[in-house]
Write a structure and sequence with these properties.
Layout (H helix, E strand, L loop, with lengths): L4 E3 L2 E4 L4 E6 L8 E8 L6 E6 L5 E3 L7 E6 L4 E6 L8 E9 L5 E3 L3 E6 L1
Parallel strand pairs: 2-11
Antiparallel strand pairs: 1-3, 3-8, 4-5, 4-9, 5-6, 7-8, 9-10, 9-11
Length: 117
Amino acid sequence: QVQLVESGGGLVQAGGSLRLSCAGSGIASSFNTIAWYRQTPGNERELVARITTTTTTNYADSVKGRFTISRDIAKNTMYLQMNSLKPEDTAVYYCNLQSSITGRNYWGQGTQVTVSS
């Protein structure tokens, strides 16, 4: 059973930076797609960034050039470096792992990011 544990959210002023972390087994595996999603009240969860099983990275248009997804294989940890934050980035951020073998999805507990103007 995969458990993903997030950390790193908080309150930051517009223009600032935060780094989110997500630790869990399977993050280092190339058989899994790893991703960050975010959700605001009343809206569906949306993809922010991901690393696919072919190591391709994808970003939502709204975060391109500001956010970077990465992982540390030795630590089984994924990161989301968020720079030049905007108030519209305010959301609960979730890390996600999808197994290409089983198709199962796993989620972190979510961490709140609030960007003040």
